[in-house]
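Re: that backbone. C-alpha cells:
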C-alpha cells in the first residue's frame, strides 16, 4: 500500500481516536495504534487501519504501521529510553513529517507570560522533544498542549472535592476540538520545523473556572486554600505565535463559555 496521503497516529486514546476519525473524514488514509484489542476492533469498524501495538513493539507490525508520510506521536509515555529504541525504526520508515504532542508543562513557573522562548524546566518532555526533533530523516513540529478537556472529559471533575492552592492563579486549558483543528492546520499549511504553545485565549482564575465547572455538572466544589501557595508558583501560557503563524482562530477561545 502506498504511504502518500497516509497518517499514522500513535496512539488512539481520548484525543487520538477522535483525531483518527477526523482525519479519515478529511480523506486521509489513517493508521491507528492502540494497546487494546477492543479498541482496535472499534477503530476498524470506523474505517481506520487499526493496529494493536505497544510503543516498545519494534517488530514487523510496527514497520507496517509506520508505512505513512506523517506520524502523529501522541503518547503519555515519559521513558526516554523507549524513544531512543524507537528512533532507528522511525528513521528507516517512509515517515517524512512528525507531529510530536508535548506539554506546556515543559516551562518553569513565571510571573511573566510564557511563550515558546521562555525558560524550560527539567521535564523529561524537554529531553524527548530534543531527541525527536534533531533528526534529518524527517521534519518535526512540536505542539505543546495545555490541559485537555472536551467530550466526556469534564473540567468539573478535575478538582472536585480536592484542596486547591493558588486560587487566583490562571488556568491554561485547550479544548479537544482546537487540538484537532490545529493539527489539521499544521498539515494543511505544511508548517514544519516549528514549536507552538496550544492553549485557549482566556485564562480565568482557578477559583472562578473550577467553581463554575463544578456547578455545571453538579459535583462538589474544590476547596480553595487561600492561605497556601503564592502567585509566583504559576504560569500563564500565551498562544500568540500559533495564532500569528497559522492565522488561527480558536473554536473555543473563551474557557468560561466553553464550559
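Recovered sequence:
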Amino acid at each position: 500500500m502506498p504511504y502518500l496521503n497516509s497518517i499514522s497516529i500513535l496512539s488512539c486514546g481520548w484525543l487520538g481516536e477522535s483525531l483518527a476519525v477526523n482525519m479519515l473524514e478529511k480523506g486521509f488514509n489513517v493508521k491507528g495504534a492502540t494497546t487494546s484489542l477492543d479498541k482496535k476492533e472499534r477503530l476498524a469498524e470506523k474505517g481506520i487501519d487499526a493496529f494493536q501495538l505497544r510503543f516498545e513493539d519494534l517488530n514487523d507490525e510496527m514497520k507496517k504501521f509506520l508505512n505513512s508520510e506523517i506520524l502523529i506521536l501522541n503518547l503519555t509515555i515519559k521513558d526516554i529510553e523507549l524513544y531512543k529504541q524507537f528512533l532507528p525504526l522511525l528513521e528507516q520508515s517512509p515517515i517524512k513529517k512528525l507531529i510530536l504532542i508535548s506539554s506546556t508543562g515543559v516551562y518553569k513557573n513565571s510571573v511573566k507570560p510564557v511563550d515558546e522562548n521562555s525558560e524550560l524546566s527539567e521535564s523529561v518532555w524537554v529531553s524527548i522533544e530534543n531527541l525527536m526533533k534533531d533528526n534529518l530523516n524527517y521534519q518535526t513540529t512540536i505542539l505543546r498542549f495545555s490541559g485537555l478537556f472536551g467530550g466526556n472529559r469534564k473540567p468539573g471533575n478535575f478538582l472536585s472535592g480536592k484542596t486547591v492552592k493558588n486560587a487566583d492563579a490562571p488556568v491554561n486549558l485547550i479544548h479537544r476540538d482546537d487540538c484537532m483543528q490545529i493539527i489539521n492546520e499544521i498539515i494543511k499549511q505544511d508548517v514544519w520545523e516549528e514549536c507552538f504553545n496550544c492553549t485557549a485565549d482566556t485564562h480565568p482564575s482557578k477559583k472562578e473556572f473550577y467553581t463554575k465547572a463544578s456547578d455545571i455538572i453538579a459535583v462538589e466544589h474544590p476547596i480553595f486554600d487561600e492561605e497556601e501557595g503564592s502567585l509566583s508558583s504559576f504560569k500563564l501560557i500565551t498562544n500568540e505565535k500559533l495564532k500569528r503563524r497559522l492565522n488561527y482562530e480558536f473554536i473555543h477561545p473563551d474557557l468560561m463559555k466553553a464550559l
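The mean pLDDT is 94. The longest helix spans residues 176-189.
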